[in-house]
Each structure stands twice: as C-alpha cells, then as structure tokens.
Design a protein that fits this description.
Blueprint: H1 18-28, E1 37-40, E2 48-53, E3 58-63, H2 76-86, E4 96-100, E5 110-114, H3 133-151, H4 169-184, H5 193-201, E6 210-212, E7 221-224, E8 227-234, E9 241-243, H6 245-253, H7 263-266, H8 281-292, H9 300-322, H10 334-351
C-alpha cells in the first residue's frame, strides 16, 4: 500500500465535463499526452480538488463547490494569483500552470497547478511510516515552523499588499464571522449569542500584520515520502489574506484535538494531533511565541475565536445541505458539531481570566 495521498472516484454531483476540460488543457499545456482521466481527493468541504492524469503528467484542478455560493466566496482567480505571488518567497506553494475564466469550459472559474506527490497527514498517519514518539514530535515542530516562516514573509516585497486590508483585522473578523453565522443560521442550529457577545467585548488590538493562511492544518501540508519530516508543500490558499498571526494560530488550534480531549471533540478530529509526541495546544502556543518573537499574556481570546469561526464555517456548509443546495452527506450532521462547539466555547469563557 502506498503512503502517498490517494485520490478516489468523483463524488456524486461533482463530475466535470472531461471533453471540455481536456480540450482547454491541451490548448494551454500542449505537451500533455494521451487521454484525460479524473479522480477526486477526499478533502475539500469548501473548494473541490481533482486529480487529472495524462500519460506524461499529473495535474491538480481546483474549483468552487457546486450549487449556490456567495458572490465574494470561492474566488479561484484570487487564490491562484496569491499563490503565484507568494511562491517566489515561500517555496512550499504549488506552481500555477493555468487559470480559466471561460464559462464555455466550466460553469465556474478554476485553476490548475502542479501536483506535489507526497504524504498528507489526514485523520491518521499511514501505518507504514511507523513513527516513534520522538519522530512524531519532530514532525509536529516542523509543521509549526512552516507557519512561523509564512508569518515572517515580507508581504510588501512580494507584492501582496492588495490581498487584504491589514490593520483592524481582529475587529473585522469578529464582526464578519458573527454576521456570517447569523445569516447561515438554520432553525435547528444554536444561536452562539453569548459567544459572539464575549468576543466583541474582549477584542484585542492586532499584534501585527502579515500574510496569514487562515486554514493551516496538518491535512493542508504535504510531506516528502522519502523524508516524512520534510514539508514540501502547503495547500489550500483559499482564505489567505493579510491579518493578525495569532488569529491564524487560533484558527489552526480549532482543529488541534489532543489525546486527553473529551469524546465530543475527539469525534471531530481530522488530523493526527492525538498521537504521542504531538504538542498539546498549550505547548503549540508556547513554541509558536518563542519562535516568532511575539509575546502575549493570555491566548484565550484567539482559541475561542478559532472555535467560533470553525462553527460558522461548519454552519455555512450545513446551510447549503439543509436547503438542498448540495447532496454531500458529509454535511448532514454538521449542525450537531456546531452545538458542541458552542458548548466548548462557553466552557472556555467560563474558565477564562480575561
């Protein structure tokens, strides 16, 4: 069995017009040989990721989800342009090979990039890796280091001043995600009123402005199959912008489920942060602050924000399922996950010294 990340059959309702895609790709990439074949990667609750294979080359195609989506969401051309600008100064970004805005080819904009053939640490690491506790810790630190490295990129030299508004990021996020949650709320969803009020009251000033990934997780990095401690790629730049690095870390820690977490949180785990050798969330914060040179006295706000933002994202996906805009059964139980996240946020607020 290969340890490389594998694509599988395309999910129902998410197939592409291969004749049109093949014709477009062979026009912009004339060296492609043979017939086109299509598979889909299992991740991607938001933008969809496909593996396109020819005789002489593998490609990755990214497009928005099917069904009704907000105008400002899933901007594939923006994502592609950010990746092209960032790649020279952050070499873990895949190379963009084509971007298409022709509605005759597809019902949406899309882009095509190189494939980083490697290991993606999803819910569980491949057993073939057989990492020791020390090995796992080494991998964990290397993954955090790449986030620190991203936050130190000189975005002005990279020509990335226009990808976000910069200052005032914390305030915009609390107001923006609160508004998005309210608009996506369904009759069977929880209100999050107490959490939103607390976040609004406790907002700190931005610690600094830098490039942030906004969805940095283990299952968005690619490991070298010959040296699984080496990160060769960072994926999914859909929500990258200019903002506060501690907000970015808070987003990441919303997915960081450790071995001693309660069963309700364990059920949401989608990356291998539970393994022996992985840092706890508290240790991640301490390590990040040491490596980045930043200093704060309390991380509670950022942790609770990350959980609330995750709940809002989950609710937006559930809203599409609830209203029949997608048939993806993965979203069916998301309303229950949102209720759990509210309980978790309220518990953390009760314990917080802020």
């Amino acid at each position: 069995m290969s340890v490389l990340d594998q694509a599988s059959d395309v999910r129902e309702g998410e197939s592409l017009n291969l004749k049109k895609v093949d014709g477009y790709l062979k026009q912009v990439l004339p060296d492609l040989e043979g017939n086109i074949s299509l598979k889909q990667f299992p991740g991607g609750a938001s933008n969809l990721t496909y593996l396109i294979q020819y005789l002489n080359q593998d490609l990755i195609l990214r497009r928005p989800p099917f069904g009704h989506i907000a105008k400002s969401a899933h901007d594939m051309i923006r994502e592609s342009n950010i990746m092209q600008a960032l790649r020279p100064v952050y070499p873990y970004v895949p190379k963009i090979l084509a971007q298409c805005e022709d509605s005759d080819v597809m019902d949406s904009n899309f882009y095509v990039m190189e494939r980083f053939a490697g290991i993606i640490p999803r819910q569980n690491l491949p057993k073939e890796l057989n990492l020791s506790e020390d090995d796992t810790r080494r991998l964990c630190l290397n993954v955090i280091d790449k986030l620190v490295e991203l936050h130190q990129v000189d975005y002005k030299k990279a020509g990335l001043e226009g990808i976000g508004k910069g200052g005032g990021y914390v305030k915009r996020q609390i107001e923006g995600w609160s508004d998005r949650y309210i608009k996506a709320k369904t009759d069977d969803a929880t209100s999050f009123e107490g959490v939103m009020a607390w976040l609004k009251e406790k907002m700190p000033e931005d610690v600094k402005t830098c490039v942030i990934h906004n969805d940095y997780r283990f299952d968005n990095v690619v490991l070298n199959p010959d040296n699984p401690f080496e990160i060769i790629g960072v994926l999914d730049w859909e929500m990258a912008t200019l903002g506060d690095p501690l907000m970015d870390l808070g987003n990441s820690l919303a997915y960081w489920i450790q071995a001693d977490d309660e069963p309700g949180f364990q059920m949401m785990r989608r990356q291998p942060t539970h393994l022996k050798g992985m840092l706890t969330r508290k240790e991640v914060v301490q390590y990040y602050l040491e490596k980045s040179g930043l200093s704060i006295s309390n991380f509670d706000f950022y942790e609770i924000y990350g959980l609330f933002r995750l709940a809002a994202i989950i609710q937006q996906l559930y809203y599409r399922y609830y209203h029949g805009q997608t048939k993806d059964e993965r979203f069916a139980g998301f309303v229950h996950a949102g209720k759990y996240l509210e309980e978790r946020c309220l518990k953390l607020i009760e314990q917080s010294s802020l």
